[in-house]
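It would be a great kindness if you could assist me with a short task in structural biology. A protein sequence and the structure tokens that stand for its backbone fold form the material at issue. I should value your view on which stretches of the chain appear to form regular backbone elements. The record follows directly beneath this note.
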Amino acid sequence: MTERNATVPLATTAGLFAAWAVHDAEEWLTTGSWARARGIPMSDAMARTAIAVMGVLVAGAAIDGARTNGRSTLYQSVLLAYGLHGFTHAANSVVVHGYSPGVATVPVTVLPFWLWASSRLDRAGVRRSARDLAPHAVAALVGGLGFSYGVTALLRKSLR
């Protein structure tokens, strides 16, 4: 039963940042060393800076979601990107035939929160269709990663 125009619980919007933080704590601890073990020149500081920049972006989307009672395209796009990005972790682990940073928290944090929050938006009658959000979600995922690592590279260069 849909409760049109119901209030979306704050846990649905602010929870995006909380779920992201739990998930990215795993990446914070593992990304740099995992990358270096595969010959990718990434320091822990570089990985953690990119994670922090992404955190600012996710926090902004969560705040916008809270401000709009879950209706904002930004919030819903980032929520969709967050959920779908879980599958990229799984795919990466398949490709490397083992662990990859972030994969352990996908089944316990990423996917459950995404499904739960999406159902809350449905129940409130404010959820946009995945078809409408898909281009925005792809832009959020690709743009967020590019922006995070781009800012990190610029900071690294300016600190030299």
